Amino acid sequence: MNAANAVRVLLVIAGFLLGLKGMALVRDFPLLTRAIPAFSTTALAADPAPAAPSPAPATTPAPAAAPSATDAMAAGLRARREALEERERSIATREALLAVAEQRLAARLAELTALQGRLEQADVDAREREESHWRTMAKLYETMRPREAAAVFNELDLPVLVQVVERMNDRKAAPVLGAMLPDRVRQLTVELARLRAARPPA
Q1: Structural domain of 164
Q2: Which of 37, 92, 148, 149 has its Cα between 20 and 30 A from that of 20?
Q3: Do the domain assignments include residue 13?
Q4: Is the pLDDT of residue 170 over 70?
Q5: Structural Rg of the chain based on CA atoms
Q6: What ranges does the record list as Pro residues composition bias (predicted)?
């Protein structure tokens, strides 16, 4: 047998052996498929899953420590200081409001004082003008002849006549009064006495 034939024989033998082995595998396949799940179950049972971690025990917060006497004293002092500061702010606010009110009152008082001064001055000016008017009329009748002045006085309103005669010179008024109607002179005398009695003493 040459080498080529020997190789062919070996190949045939190898193929025959492989075929026998394949047939054995086919025959044993159901047994293998049943063994795999059993093996898996056994392996899983032998190697259990890690247990879930147990929850950590709940921690109870420690009770707060009772405030010491020093803390209580500090809190009391702090509250008292805040109350005093609030009172000081309230007093300062009231003082500011009072100051504003006083300023307004002072300004208003100054206005009223100035107004009063103007009114008083206006009254003085009016009195001076009135006095100047009566004195001018008195001078006018003093320059007239007594009978002419008497004729006017007999017809003049009594309040006006009183003001004019009151300001005339007594020496110049006498002849005029002598020439007037007696009843008119009597009325004038009564009114002059009443006017002089009501006048405040100098």
Answers
A1: 144-202
A2: 37
A3: no
A4: yes
A5: 71
A6: 50-60
Q: List pLDDT tens digits, range 98-116.
A: 999 999 999 999 999 999 9
**pLDDT value of residue 36:** 41
Distances in whole angstroms, Cα of residue 10 to Cα of each of 4, 15, 22, 99: 10, 9, 18, 132
Which pLDDT score, from 0 to 100, does residue 23 have? Answer: 54
CA atoms of 133 and 116, how far apart (whole Å):
25
| 166 belongs to a structural domain | yes
* Beta-carbon count within 10 A of 188 CB: 19
Residue 162 included in any domain: yes
pLDDT at 20: 53
Residue 149, classified by CB atoms within 10 Å of its CB into exposed (0-12), middle (13-18) or buried (19+), is buried
Q: Is the pLDDT of residue 31 over 60?
A: no
Q: What is the pLDDT of residue 72?
A: 86
Q: Give the amino acid at 104.
A: R
DSSP per position, 25-52: HHHHHHHHHHHHHHHHHHHHHHSPPPPP
What's the structural domain count of the chain?
1
158, 191 contact by CB (below 8 A): yes
* Separation of CA 37 from chain center: 88
First to last CA, the chain: 189
